[in-house]
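Fold this sequence, please.
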Amino acid sequence: MTERDLLSSDAYSSDAYSSDADASKRSSHLAGTLADPAVNTPPQPLREAVESAMRRYFEHLDGSQATDLYAMVMAEVEAPLLACVLEHTDGNQTRAADVLGLNRGTLRKKLKLYGLIEGDTP
């Protein structure tokens, strides 16, 4: 199991959804929430979700030393954040940048970094 796997709540789920029908139910039930899809619990605020994930991560390190944790967590959070905001704005990068409070150029750089858009061709 990699360090990134340890951050995922799915890595600890013993009752993960498997069928497309279940995935559809999970998607509609969890829309806009951070609830664990494997457990019927109320939505969890982002702050608490991060804290829980970090506690699980440290518990499962099993004595191993964590390295570059900040960069790893930021990459794990930033990529889906950018993807969701871009989807919310129907791909409009100017609006997405406004929603995120970023300069459009900074947003484009990050989108390219995470492979969410293709780089400019000369």
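The CA atoms of residues 20 and 26 lie 10 Å apart. The helical segments are 3-7, 20-30, 46-59, 69-88, 93-100, 104-113.
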